[in-house]
Design a protein that fits this description.
Number of helices of chain B: 8
Helix content of chain A: over 70%
Order of helices and strands of chain A: HEEHHHHHHHHHHHHHHHHHHHHHHHH
Chains: A mainly alpha (582), B alpha+beta (363), C alpha/beta (361)
Strand order of the largest sheet of chain A: 1-2
Oligomer: heterotrimer
Largest interface: A-C, 59 and 62 residues
Helix content of chain B: 10-25%
Order of helices and strands of chain B: EEEHEEEEHHHEHEHEEHHEEEEEEEEEE
Mean pLDDT of chain A: 79
Number of strands of chain B: 21
Chain lengths: 582, 363, 361
């Protein structure tokens, strides 16, 4: 007759509903402020985008007088262009292929680092993260220098060793080349997520399997993989979303191979030569993109909630068993070495070499650096890049944490909507955000257009990252820890300041650093929103490239690496300490 | 000290709404120890959380020390941090990022107007010594055992000398031996500080051992409240009876009621038993006779006036043995000395102390 | 606003420069040198009285902003302008998206531009919306036939299409003079082209060949000759030796590549397409007089020679002194100018060819 209600705290704490009065004035402002900020940062550009898709005609800009609502763009794009027959299949192949490559590589690397006795694990861990620093443009250029069919260094070397004729044997300008490059570039991020999932797995589950007489491989297939599945599928979805929005590789490597994907299609619509950018058509293309992203997001959300149930809340760090590699040690190290060489070491060498030599074998000099440092665009760009990356990372971390807290702990109408909104931001590709923000701010007379503040706003749409991270950490924090503070006489500010933030601290820092790195190397958004007052380093690099100042462009790339490397080391300390290795 | 009137609370769930509290009334005098006892889902924790201010009641009122802290009709709700309470959680809720001292000092540190650091130190050390954790002030909270965490939780709850101490199943996370030990310590502490206490538990032995008053709750209502002996010895209905201690139920028919005694013919045997009863029953009314295992004597040889049963098994339990019998088809349990041995299928004869039996109408 | 000048590259200009160029440059430089003093606000000698008068009126405005499709066409201007008109600072922006930016900014009420310079086709959207000021540029020496849209735009310099080849791999005699000849099998795996310029080149060729023949030509180049269609600068592919000949390129492209140390040559084909660049004064300019001064100066013969020498951008239409114009004449080639009459048709061809070049995307 008794009805079961989870009053006592179960393993995963039930949502506690709070009395609004507990928030107090300061709390109320912070919470409502965060919610509004989230809505503005994410929804406003999105709505601007949706509106643009239905404005025409196409020879007027959407906000000009004379523009009106129409379905023309959508009809034009979907029925009268080869979008569905060519771009869609190409994108599908590209995304699938690169996700498979990313996944296979990231999983293997994560497994080797977390679950085997691979030597030099700490160093390798840091090295794998390194490609996070390298802007996609730089990677792509470096790889073309290495693998171009006629003059690529690797090809030249292979040809002389194997006695072959030009061109080849490796042709980077192909679907295969594109997939491999994109796949390798996305590895670090997925590697981090998979590593985290593997770390939190309860070793008792595998021990039970061994005790039942199963060989290691059987345990892996029948126990480890299924248990890891939600924690592994979620990064897979994430990798798919990231691949969908990728733009630098398809532009530099895919395009010469006559491969057109969504992102390059959008780029060309937005950058025609003599005509005006076809905002309406670009937005119409983006609709399909967004629809696919939303579907993926729903699946991702579902998987994440399942994965959360698999994580225990005791906070005691598990030490999963490590398998001995034995005779697999050499091949494993070779695999790691291959990835590091192709993904980090070679591109960096190419970059640095180019910065000193300008890409020809004439001779090396510091000329490029000298000219760059004297260029009046450079130092403001450095300041802008740090400012924009730092401010946006700070905003996102703070808003994301507040958002995660209120979605998890408070009950109010619209809670689900807020969750979905913050979450959706991951599915919006950067190129769309950039141009949505531009359209929005050209239409609204706020006067932010052309300043660094518009960049800060545009970058800050990536709420999903920090909301996710904060949420994962918050779940580990039993709500009774907060209630104990209330019951001890602490107000909302005391509770947040003395209990929640210190406990969340490490994850907030990680979120900030990750977002700082992402913001530092962000390229698409500042390209779209550029003006004389808000250049950042990645845009300067592209301009120099386009103006054929290759050495200087490479110098900028090198300096970007130099600036962000210290951040990686700080980030790694946090990540490794969570691993329990320190 | 604490007055609760007409407390109701309804939750909206995925399948509709669920009324957790259907009208709770009770009072705790200054220095009293009041226990809410019941199974999971009966509403005891909800009541406690309403008193603490962590939940807002939909109806009724609560006042602590003469101050109204919640009144649903007038829309008043004093938040938790303004109530003069100390709360010990089931999970202790010790903050992992602080040491023991900081945990206990917290209520004093967040107090406005500010308390001087010197005074904080003195009071915290007092509280720690009170719970026997005086040497642990600088220990990191993550390095404490369960029992130690519990003591720290106590110290924290008592450090600002609240008017009301609230305890939400504080012993249920401990292992059996520790639980007993902590129960004694708790009682000691509470009687020494003489703080008014509201205690919530599902463990009836705790409730009976520690409380001045026990309130048995089921389905959002207080079914019966009274002193431990009252509630145990005179349960108001079969729910209470079966919840507190074990109970044996034998179906029977009333032959007649006379002079405050009901003559009941027991099913499954040719026995009649005369039970004191203030209620009147019509002739032939079906009733349940309820008695505790310790109120029956079991013999292995027939004596006049005893009821014959068949032994199912005898379970050795160290200090005593439980004898599982069958009267007809009704299972019964009695308590015997551990040296008694009997085989399944043996016959046994029991004498029930009629004056300690309860009689309820069968439904 | 800041002066965004890049220091000019220290590498020597192409060794092919004829001696006449050096003499002319030297003469100009010599005449300008004595008067480079930062504190002086006098116009240099050699500036016409008309411009001097305009300069006096422009001085209070102090600066002028010019927008162009890319840096090369304007980045040389601030230094040279400052030699002659020290009191007026030149700011520039090179952005291929300048037309939509101008439109957007006008809509947002921002007036940051004084002078507009773009190709004729690229000016259309801006001109259509009435963003350019009508002016009688004949007072500064422009011919009637060089004035477009009733005075809203005036002809400036040309973008002359010519294939570029790496000298270390090919000799000039090996490069054909007929566009058709590039589809011969020997060019397999040797060709590269920019994705924007190739369809544009095709648009010009189609005026002469018709669309069908041009489509076929491009298809063969891409599919059978494996012409690499690049989104990044073609110079990279020539520099690394990945490809040897860039098909849709220009004489100014060759100039810039050589200035950066590449060592390339260009070939004057039998048919030479030439894009027409124009200058225009923007309405509601913050510094209108300075803007007019800048345009007037850029129309002068001296400035046209500077365009060719410092930026590699010749005026082969109106400047008979232009070395390139003379080279083309000597080669007996036919020049296809960009003009208002064929503009729409070429734009049409362009659109059709773009989808082929980009792979049906």
């Amino acid at each position: 007759m008794a009805i079961q209600v989870d009053e006592a705290a179960p393993v995963v704490p039930a949502v506690r509903r709070k009395r609004r009065g507990q928030l107090g004035l300061a709390g109320g402002i912070a919470i409502v402020g965060a919610a509004i900020a989230a809505l503005y940062l994410v929804m406003a550009p999105l709505l601007a985008l949706l509106a643009t898709a239905f404005r025409g005609p196409s020879d007027l800009l959407p906000f000009e007088p004379g523009a009106h609502w129409t379905f023309d763009n959508v009809v034009d794009v979907y029925l009268h262009t080869p979008l569905l027959s060519t771009v869609l299949p190409n994108t599908a192949i590209f995304v699938l292929g690169s996700v498979v490559v990313t996944f296979f590589t990231a999983f293997t690397l994560a497994w080797l680092i977390e679950r085997t006795d691979l030597p030099w694990r700490t160093t390798i861990f840091t090295a794998i993260l390194f490609p996070l620093l390298v802007p996609g443009v730089v990677m792509a250029f470096a790889w073309t220098l290495l693998f171009a069919p006629n003059a690529g260094w690797v090809n030249v070397a292979l040809r002389s060793v194997l006695g072959l004729d030009s061109p080849g044997p490796i042709n980077i300008f192909s679907m295969g080349g594109l997939i491999l490059c994109q796949g390798a570039a996305s590895v670090p991020f997925v590697f981090l997520l998979l590593g985290a999932a593997m770390r939190t797995m309860n070793p008792a589950l595998e021990e039970a399997s061994s005790a039942s007489g199963a060989k290691p491989l059987t345990t892996f297939l029948r126990v480890t993989l299924p248990v890891l599945r939600p924690g592994v599928l979620a990064p897979l979805i994430l990798a798919t979303l990231v691949a969908l929005e990728q733009f630098e590789m398809p532009l530099i490597i895919g395009f010469p191979a006559r491969i057109n994907v969504f992102s390059t299609r959008l780029y060309f619509d937005l950058n025609p030569e003599d005509e005006l950018p076809a905002y309406g058509k670009a937005a119409a293309v983006a609709l399909l993109f967004l629809a696919a992203a939303v579907v993926l997001l729903i699946v991702y959300n579902h998987l994440i909630r399942r994965a959360e149930r698999f994580v225990t809340v005791t906070g005691k760090g598990y030490r999963p068993t490590r398998y001995a590699l034995g005779r697999w040690r050499a091949p494993a190290l070779a695999f790691v070495g291959l990835y590091l060489a192709a993904g980090a070491i070679l591109p960096t060498i190419v970059l640095v070499w180019t910065s000193f030599s300008g890409g020809s074998s004439d001779g090396m000099s510091f000329d490029a650096y000298r000219m760059l440092l004297a260029d009046r665009r450079f130092w403001p760009a450095v300041a802008n890049t740090f400012a924009v990356a730092g401010l946006s990372a700070g905003i996102i971390t703070l808003v994301g944490a507040l958002l995660a807290w209120q979605i998890l702990r408070l009950r109010f109408p619209g809670r689900r909507l807020l969750d979905v909104v913050s979450f959706m931001s991951i599915g919006i590709p950067a190129v769309i955000t950039g141009f949505a923000v531009m359209v929005l701010h050209l239409t609204l007379p706020i006067g932010l257009y052309g300043t660094i503040w518009i960049l800060v706003l545009a970058y800050s749409y990536r709420l999903a990252v920090s909301t996710r991270l904060s949420r994962a950490s918050l779940i580990q924090i039993h709500p009774e820890l907060e209630e104990a503070s209330f019951a001890s006489g602490g107000r909302w500010l005391d509770t947040v300041g003395r209990v929640v933030l210190p406990l969340l601290g490490p994850s907030l820092l990680a979120s900030f650093l990750l977002l700082f790195i992402v913001g530092f190397r962000e390229f698409t958004i500042p390209m779209i929103l550029q003006s004389e007052d808000n250049w950042v380093l990645s845009v300067i690099m592209w301009k120099l490239q386009a103006d054929r100042q290759t050495a200087q462009a490479a110098a900028v790339g090198t300096l970007i690496l130099v600036f962000v490397t210290p951040v990686i080391f700080v980030l790694r300390r946090y990540l490794l300490s969570r691993q329990g290795e320190t | 000290m604490l007055t609760v009137r007409g407390l109701t609370k309804t939750y909206a769930t995925a399948d509709g709404s669920f009324q957790a509290l259907k009208g709770i009334d009770f009072e705790i005098p200054q220095g009293g120890f009041y226990t809410l006892l019941g199974e999971s889902g009966c509403g005891k924790s909800t009541t406690l959380r309403c008193v603490a201010g962590l939940e807002e009641p939909d109806g009724g009122s609560i006042s602590i020390g003469g101050h109204v802290v919640a009144d649903a009709e007038r829309g008043a709700q004093v938040p938790a941090f303004e109530r003069d309470i100390g709360l010990v959680f089931q999970s202790y809720a010790i903050w992992p990022h602080m040491d023991v001292f900081a945990n206990v000092a917290y209520p004093l540190r967040v107090q406005r107007p500010r308390v001087a650091a010197v005074e904080i130190k003195a009071r915290v050390m007092d509280a720690l010594r009170l719970v026997g954790m005086g040497d642990f002030a600088n220990r990191q909270a993550t390095k404490l055992s369960g029992g130690q965490q519990q003591r720290v939780a106590f110290a924290r709850a008592l450090v600002r000398r609240p008017k009301l101490l609230l305890l939400d199943e504080p012993l249920s996370n401990l292992d059996a031996k520790l639980r007993e030990q902590m129960r004694f310590e708790l009682q000691e502490l509470i009687s020494r500080t003489r703080v008014t206490t509201l205690y919530v538990t599902h463990d009836q032995s705790e409730a009976l051992a520690m409380s001045d008053t026990v309130a048995v709750m089921a389905s959002g209502r207080i079914v019966q409240s009274g002193s431990p002996r009252e509630v145990y010895g005179r349960p108001a209905n079969r729910t209470v009876a079966s919840f507190l201690g074990s109970a044996n139920f034998i179906r029977g028919k009333v032959i007649e009621t006379r002079d405050g005694l009901a003559a009941v013919a027991l099913d499954g045997g040719a026995s009649t038993i005369h039970i004191p009863s203030r209620a009147t029953f019509s002739q032939g009314a079906p009733v349940d006779v309820i008695f505790r295992p310790e109120d029956a004597t079991t013999r292995l040889d027939p004596v006049d006036g005893t009821i014959e049963c068949i032994v199912d098994r005898v379970v050795f339990q160290g200090g005593m043995s439980e004898c599982q019998l069958r009267l007809g088809s009704t299972p019964l349990r009695t308590v015997v000395h551990p040296s008694v041995g009997a085989q399944p299928g043996d016959r046994a004869w029991i004498t029930i102390q009629a004056e300690r039996c309860l009689l309820f109408a069968a439904n | 606003m800041q002066d965004r000048t890049l220091r000019p590259s220290r590498r020597a200009p192409s060794r092919r420069a004829p001696s006449r160029r050096i003499v002319v440059t030297g003469a100009l430089a010599a005449s300008a040198v004595p008067l480079i003093r930062l504190t002086s606000a006098q116009p240099a000698a050699g500036v016409s009285p008309q411009l001097a008068e305009l300069y006096e009126k422009a001085k209070p405005e102090g600066e002028v902003t010019i927008w162009a499709p890319g840096a090369p066409s304007v980045q040389w201007i601030p230094a040279e302008f400052a030699k002659r008109f020290p009191g007026v600072k030149v700011n520039w922006l090179g952005d291929q998206q300048a037309s939509s930016r101008l439109i957007a900014e006008k809509r947002a009420g921002r007036h940051a531009v004084d002078v507009w310079t773009f190709s004729l086709g690229g000016t259309l959207e801006v001109q259509k919306r009435g963003l350019l000021e009508k002016f009688d540029w004949r007072q500064f020496g422009a011919q009637d036939r060089d004035i477009f849209f009733d005075g809203e735009a005036v002809a400036n310099h040309n973008y002359v299409y010519a294939p570029i080849f790496t000298k270390s791999k090919l000799g000039k005699e090996q490069v054909p003079r007929a566009w058709e000849a590039l589809i011969e099998p020997q060019w397999t795996d040797k060709l590269v082209s920019d994705s924007f310029l190739l369809p544009r080149l095709g648009g010009y060729l189609a005026i002469d060949w018709g669309l069908e023949r041009t489509e076929k030509w491009i298809k063969v180049l891409i599919e059978q000759r494996k012409l690499l269609v690049a989104s990044s600068p073609v110079a990279n592919f020539l520099k690394s030796g990945e490809r040897q000949l860039a098909v849709a390129e220009s004489t100014s492209g060759a100039f810039l590549m050589n200035r950066d140390g590449l060592n390339v040559g260009y070939q004057i084909m039998e048919m030479v397409p030439a894009t027409q660049f124009v200058l225009g004064a923007v309405k509601q300019a913050p510094h209108p007089t300075a803007g007019r001064l800048l345009i007037a100066w850029l129309l002068s013969p001296e400035a046209k020679m500077l365009y060719e020498q410092l930026a590699g951008q010749p005026d082969i239409r109106a400047n008979s002194q232009s070395p390139l114009a003379q080279e083309i004449k000597a080669a007996g080639s036919k020049i296809i100018y960009e003009d208002v009459e064929t503009m729409n048709q070429r734009a049409d061809y362009y659109r059709k060819l773009v989808s082929i070049v980009r792979g049906q995307g």
